[in-house]
Amino acid sequence: MRTLTIMIGLLMIVPTLSGCFAGEKIENIEESGPFSFEEGEISITTWYHYPGTVSNPIAVDATNPDAVLGANLSVNLSGNNIPFYASGTYYGTGWDTFEPTLGITSSGAIFFTNYNGLGDGTHIIRSTDQGLSWEDVGPFGMSDDQGQTPNSNDPYLYVDKFNDKLVKFDMHALTAMFVEYSDDDGETWSTPFPVEGYYAPQDHQSIASMPHSNAIVGDVVYVYCINTGSPAAGAQCSRSLDGGHTWDAQQIGYPTESFGNQCSGLHGHVAGGSDGWVYRGNPSCEGPAVYASSDGGYTWSEHTITTEVGMQQGWHSHEVATAVDEGGNIHATWISTDQMIWYANSQDHGESWGSPLMVSAPGIKETGFPTIFAGDSGRVVIGYIGEMNDVTANNSTSGGVGWGGYMAIMTDAFNDVPLITSIAVNLPGDPLDDTSDCGNVRCGGFGDFIDVEIDDEGRPWVALAHNTAGFQEAIIGTFVTGPALYGDLISLPELPLGGNSTLKMS
What we know:
This protein has about 500 residues and is mainly β. The protein has helices at about 10, 65-70; strands at about 45-50, 60, 85-95, 100-105, 110-115, 120-125, 135, 155-160, 165-170, 175-180, 195, 205-210, 220-225, 235-240, 250, 270, 280-285, 290-295, 300-305, 320-325, 330-335, 340-345, 355-360, 365-375, 380-385, 405-410, 420-425, 450-455, 460-465, 475-480. The strands form seven sheets. The protein has a six-stranded antiparallel β-sheet with strand order 2-1-27-26-25-24. Strands 3-30-29-28 form a four-stranded antiparallel β-sheet, with no helix packed on it. A four-stranded antiparallel β-sheet has the order 4-5-6-7, with no helix packed on it.
């Protein structure tokens, strides 16, 4: 991939684009321009843009030199901040889902939660061919030492990348939770290990691992946190030092000096770093915040990200998603009062934060269910659903596209003006949902959250649901090609196109 240093004056040689997500053809871009690709024209579901800021919270089309000039940006497309040809797609699984989560092991196998409801619990489906085909790997019951939680109200899946172990975390009737493990890609499962819980409800559980000297068995400490829904109780967390077999009593997941002074008992997913730190996103009383622990989850510190950009006052008013890259840097994302996706990062365990950036794709009007994952230092993917225009229940539209599944990637998140490459995994005529306010309500398979992860090749994957046929089919979105988020900064090998024709539920 060529290295480009492009300043505003040079960008003026590039013609303005006229295409949009509604389906117009993108004009050819002059061969010498930074967004001219040997692979072909830019897809109608791909955007190259610069982030909005607090003073100007509008996405800036990086391929439009007039827009860049008008935003008074001095951009530097060099080093890791370079454009790659990118496009997206999705594959149907044939199984239903609710609050989809996923995990990817070192073998390349992808695992996805399949929600079966009362009596059969959550099963895990597996793909060993990059999402093209799927099989149910259980757990199937108590025979042959394989476990199964008989009822799961909140399915959750996590991969402990430090031990290449699947972790299945189920909540039963808002009062009890169980953890099951597989260290052979889902071929066999442990019996369910009960975790300690004293607060009700036990909800919105999330789990993470991190290498730590506190570990007694193995080399990692597991930490899980739950929502209580009560500011007085706050979020509660528990730890296991013996590989997840036994757990200590739940304790407050925030600084003890703040006891009784929390403004939310709700939080996003827990994230563990290779440096032994663990984080969870949660609003403080000042704004979006991250809570950090360096001692294996025993004590926590509070770090407000910003007081300039608030949080959405609705379904996602609690959701600050966090990730840790291989350099130990924290990346956080949330939905603000403008219904847009905002992002910030910290390079010192949350003590200080970079300026918040608005990272939604150009043309997005509303968003929902933000999620984030980080690869090598400064490389990050944000997943969310977004809407440009309404598609109503009877599929009438005012030039709209309905709700789409989006991924935004940055390969140099610490750049003064990071280039963002955004893709929609579905085409304009194939919305994932036609509920007008899907971003702010539970709709179909979108319950409280979705999930995103990066495989060892560096390819990002997002767990979504396709709701419009009356089913909540689990679908997995990815980049057909784009930049690798682990290892050498190169183009990912091309995958086959998927889309609506791959849906299997009918």
